[in-house]
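Structure tokens please, single chain.
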Amino acid sequence: MTTTITGARVFDGERLTHHTAVRLADGRVDAVGDDTLRRPGDEHVDARGGTLVPGLIDAHVHLLPGAPRQALTFGVTTVLDMFSKPGTVRDAIAQAAGPDAADVRSSSIGATAPGGHPSMMYAPFPYVSGPRDAERFVADRVAEGAAHLKVLYDDGTGGPMPMPSLDVPTIAALTGAAHRAGLVVAAHVSTARGALDLLPTGVDVLAHVPFDALDGSQVAAVAAAGVAVISTLSVADGFPGDRGLLDEPALVPRLGPAWCAVLERQRQRWLPPQLPDFTAARHNARLLHEAGVPLLAGTDAPNPGTVHGASLHRELGHLVAAGLAPAAALTAATARPADVFGLADRGRIRPGLRADLVLVDGRPDEDITATRRLTAVWKRGTRAGLDGYVGSADEEAGLAALRAQTEKVIAAVRDRFGVKL
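Here you go.
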């Protein structure tokens, strides 16, 4: 099946082009140009002045059953998983083989200290006790099909509770082993100090913008190190403030009643007295972007307040609110994560690349909220069905898994801290 889309504004992943048409054939972008691309027998789509953008990439998720299918209904055609257990990853990759689910790249199990984050949610799983464990840990992840490595450096300083953490020499050893295996290394840090500690280890990506303020010298150090930073500003949607996704009329119908009910319950959950400073995180994102640090749009879904696929549109809005131009925010969810994670076949609209495309009603390079008005999504040249997730067995399985994870975390917090939840 070949498809020619005409009458479009074409954002190629980095800029708005002069092109008005894109032809798709054999799962790839066959040509980019004007209406003369159309051939007899092509399926024809009149974009009616809408904007074509590359399929969106969420650079930081944690998988739930059915998550790839849910993500695609919101135009997210690739998800980068940053810690899930092997069975969940295998099921997600199998689902991603179909036309109606996002592609999946995963770290599988992340490297953390015994009892370290995120044990409360995922234990039991293999831990790393020191540098001598690095080669075996990385080899085991490669055997599980990991496409990148996640390492966790967090002693709880930036949050409400202390926890064990890997040390810097261990992360350096893990990074070296991962690079020898050809893997990009993404490091979980939550503080400015943590980010600076890890720069000498050679990690490639910081998996969060720090939640405390970076000063000018720290921003310069991050820029000089050549690391990328995943924004994850959407985690703010799970804390007091506005209603987050529930205040998004263009997204709520695709969320469906069950997920909306989850979001309402999450707004009523117990919260620790010390909350992250999201103002500082947004300010950090702007400073890093201005310093030339590659920012990647990622949501950390399904943290409270976030949903696979839907929250990436909120993330784009948060990036623009932080000071990025709408076009730069789009690049953070398309070309930039593709570059950083070595996904050379996607992230742009160019001949020969995967025909992962999103058509939206409006001009998202000028008004980022236009991404929420999805008209059509293509994955490898096949137009995706966007209405089958809500009410499906996949939705039911995802919600059940989220409930189980939540109950596990609640029990762990209650047992460790004596908090009545």
